[in-house]
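the two lines:
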Amino acid sequence: MVDFLNKWREGLARTSKAAFGRLAGMLGATEITPETWEDLEALLIQADVGLETTQAVLKALKETVKREGLTRASDLRAVLKAELRSRLTTPPPLVFSDRPTVILLVGVNGSGKTTTAAKLGQRFMKEGKTVLFGAADTFRAAAVDQLQVWGERLKAEVIAGAPESDPGAVAYNAVQAGIARGVDVILIDTAGRLHTRFNLMEELKKVYRVVQKALPSAPHAVWLVLDATTGQNALQQARAFKDAVRVNGVILTKLDSSARGGMAFAIQRELGLPILFAGLGEKPEDLTPFDPDAFINGVLE
Amino acid sequence: MFENLTHRLNQVFDQLRRRGKLSEADVDAAMREVRLALLEADVHYSVVKDFVNRVKARAVGAEVSKALNPGQQVIKIVHEELIATLGEPAPLNLSGPKPRVVMLVGLQGSGKTTQAGKLAKLLRSRGERVMLVAGDPYRPAAVQQLQQLGERVDVPVIADLKKKPPELAAYALDQAQKGGYTVMIVDTAGRSQLDEALMTELRAIEKRISPVEVLLVVDAMIGQEALHVAEGFRDNVAITGLILTKMDGDARGGAAISIRSVTGVPIKFLGTGEKLDALETYDPGRLASRILGMGDVIGLIEKAEAAFDAQTAQKQAQKLMKGEMDLQDWLEQMRQMRKMGPLTQLLEMLPGQLGQVARQVDPREVEKNFKQIEAIINSMTPEERRNPDILNASRRRRIAAGSGNDVQAVNRLMKQFRETQKLMKTLQKTGLKGLPRLFG
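prediction for all of em together
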């Protein structure tokens, strides 16, 4: 557990240094002034928390300050933390009651789906599960090769199709192969697509339907892989993917950069989607279960 | 749901339009909204602050011209300042001794490898002898990805996983010189700007191959982080230009303003799709309009110009002016429209709310609809096309059978045609007054 928290702190250290280091100075033992509020606004917006959420957080903080008669800027720290914490849920534990459990990974181009599929695979294998990958990104050049390299490294089977072939067929084959081999988890990587592309979203819906056809209880989970550097567009992305293929969780990647992934708050609030995992580094073990407390601590300390 | 920039600015400007004169308080109110709108468009907090102050300084005071109403003046200033911040477009610098080296840098997943393929295709079509260099040995299969792209555009790819990227780049440069190549494009590994090891590597590559262009590739969906990314890369390598990718999504692309204000280097290309020819030159007016949510009207016009056959268009225009559009003309118009490119892309260029609505349309439905119309008109005699009034019930039955439709479909089409005719007549009478204008 200590190790785990350290990883978070390390991963987010750059994040906090980049802008949140100012928080300590900002919320010193001075009085709360209009500038304090302005600084807090700047802080939250620069973390990509978004205008709407920022204003809601500030409003709630102001009410608390009034109600509890706080006067010192330093008192705001704990209140801010609590307010932000109330906007994130602890991710529900993953249940693998079905065998195989089929997980579909979706998202826009370049968000890190293939890498995340590999990292998740390694995590599940370490937990003693058997994993099979479906390389259903038949569009991007060498996307299949990328997953196959990972498959070799992890010694896990990868079901792939020919380039430009039907991703639905690959997904179907992957599920069938998974059933035949009796694996615990099937991770299906899909092609990156912008949520505004009608045809590509239709194609994704088809992949979903085909997976369902291959195994009526599947897919058991559809996870949106979201780049933490994404700005306000993240909410539109999450909404579109949720509408199309019933996304039920989010994986926040590239959180080890100075990006802060503040859109997580709005996504959780508006779409009710929990953040399940966070990518805190390049190594497979750097993909860790999302810990809201560590996230907020790392962000504010 | 976040309100988009169009909507917000329209609200602001509606308020301003209703006023006779601009007071400082009016400008302040407008600027508050402009500020919020720009923040929602992902422009960096501090950049917004500067921008708003600049516009405010220009809006309050002597510059308010008597020729325009104050609202128009403010909109004009906001638009102009946005264009000024985005800066003039610049072509790719291909000067100096051959081979000219172009290096692509950026975060993971921003689209460097894909843009490298697109650039190779573009330059090759301009008659350059292009070589690609796979400088990302870290991401599994990144090399294969570039190799496959190289194959598609028929450009050789230099790769060697045993060599460190700086050595590989130097080796490739030597090969390019010997082989008589005119342009060498180097793809590099994507990594955070805070990754010291990678930044050192980038500096080493730059030193070995002296690129004429170091292009920073940035995802148009990026948020506030854009500013730090731009600063981080600028501090390590001599960035000469930007490529904004994934512009075919619905992100406003406000990050462009942040990056421009930090680096000062020109935006050189926009990536607008996954296909290898989806690389467009940049136009500040168009991008400003997009950020302001006015849609890419100029882009739409350009596409129309490129697709339309001038003679046919002129003949049609003359007929239209006389209010004489017949079914044949109508069909021609629809055919020309289709030549302009994939319908989805056209729909996305529409401004503001119209664009939002258009995105909900299923392009396959529209396509099907068009095919039906085409079949029906093709089943008519030339006389019927010229003079639709003669279409009686018997003719309609024949046309329906001939085109594989029922009579209702023919009737629907005729109704649609009459409506279009009516619209044309109205436009003819009111002229441009009937069309919404860009500025107030």
